[in-house]
Amino acid sequence: MAEQRVKWVIGNWKMHGRLAENAALLQAVADGAAAMADAIRIGVCVPTPYLAQTQALLSGKSLAWGVQDISTYTHGAYTGEVAAEMACEFGATLAIVGHSERRAYHAESSELVASKARRALQAGLTPIVCIGETLEEREAGTTEAVVGAQLDAVLNLLSVEEAQRIVIAYEPVWAIGTGRSATAEQAQEVHAFLRARLVQKDASLACVALLYGGSVKPENAQVLFGQADIDGGLIGGASLKSEDFLAICEQAKVASHAH
Ligand code: 13P
Prior knowledge:
globular; 44% helix; binds 1,3-dihydroxyacetonephosphate; alpha/beta; TIM Barrel; eight-stranded parallel beta barrel
């Protein structure tokens, strides 16, 4: 594709953080991101109770923020759930949906994830839809069947116009938090498959951002982000250290200039 796609680096803090450490981290990331914001998109997805703090510290800065999950509903008797509109009230623009930890520990189906993606879009949030295979599925040779079905569930529910506004994160479950990243070749292979699947639905979906997630570190970001179909990263552990997160952002900036 001749069209230039912008690189993204999004932090997923997961269930980490406390007020004092968040303040230091957000400040340092915002300071470092300022010089890169023209070249790449940078964001952080924080635990929901810290949205107000994040909004207060990041407003007017060149960095987006968001949540790690949303409800499929706008309001109602859904104890513990958080509506997309609630996140929007705190300036959130991003919502991770379908993270493998939610699929595994909260039994989220691909159909539920698809409806969360649509709900996010309806509220004006950019959904970052996570997909990925387990080690058993990879070893059984079913990676493409698994991620293809996870993507199809979303594409079947959304209109083409809606699908143009999503972000996909390919996160092989076996690479998350294990220190064992997919190789750049393994990741590129799946990303190319996903890009083709998007284009099969509609040619305009060639521009959907495809992020890689799973043990991205300053040391492997350059080679991952240098792949033709990898548009950046969704970063777990390394997003909790400002130097590591900013070093990864720097690699995305370098890769975006190289294309
Ligand atoms: P790690 O970067 O800690 O492997 O986590 C990846 C992830 O799950 C991001 O959503």
